[in-house]
Amino acid sequence: MDNIRVLLADDHAVVREGLKALISAEPGMELVGEASDGRAAVTLTTELDPDVVVVDVSMPELNGAEVTAHLRAERPDRKVLALTVHEDRGYMRRLLEAGAAGYVLKRAAPSELVQAIRAVAGGGTYLDPALATGELSEVNDPARDAGGTGADLSERETEVVRLIALGYSNKEIAGRLKLSVKTVETYKTRSMEKLGVRTRVDIVQYAARRGWLVTT
Prior knowledge:
CATH architecture of the largest domain: 3-Layer(aba) Sandwich
GO biological process, one term: phosphorelay signal transduction system
CATH superfamily of the largest domain: Response regulator
Shape: globular
Order of helices and strands: EHEHEHEHEHEHHHHHH
Oligomer: single chain
Number of helices: 11
Low-confidence stretches: 134-148
Pfam families: GerE (PF00196), Response_reg (PF00072)
InterPro entries: CheY-like_superfamily, NreC/VraR/RcsB-like_REC, Sig_transdc_resp-reg_C-effctor, Sig_transdc_resp-reg_receiver, Tscrpt_reg_LuxR_C, WalR-like
Number of domains: 2
Strand order of the largest sheet: 2-1-3-4-5-6
Protein name: DNA-binding response regulator
Keywords: DNA-binding, Phosphoprotein, Transcription, Transcription regulation
CATH topology of the largest domain: Rossmann fold
């Protein structure tokens, strides 16, 4: 399996050095580039085409939300993970709306950042457990707007939705539930239709409102 190629954008050199050491020491990951401001992050992402772009929320030139919006406009499948000291729920909301697939606090354990990078690289979504439930109850929830309650989801559909919200890829869900990837995709599509949602981030918003992101 190829390494997960990560590009790091943070305007603090000390932070970059620490994260560089963490990522470089992690099996299956490699740091392919560093940027100290938002505009450089956009340029380097275009040049290096990393699997995951880890961006600080507050940077000169372009902030994290602006970087995310630029990257997603350029390539809708671009995977962005926000890493920040900001625990303000408004910051998280703006990053999600810009298209970020994850939001992790800098005070999180190193293992949590690694988990977040892997989840996002695999097509999943990862939100810091310290913020996810409380934040997403206030974010625009397509499932709520569409009237979806989840009451008509089957037990298996509920399992699939919860695992998607926790950051598992379709392949990982298939292995965990002993199903084919095609079957997982069918459950996912059916569940999203029932809930009136369109993206993985929408699913996370739905699951967080119901407390499904709490793991044991």
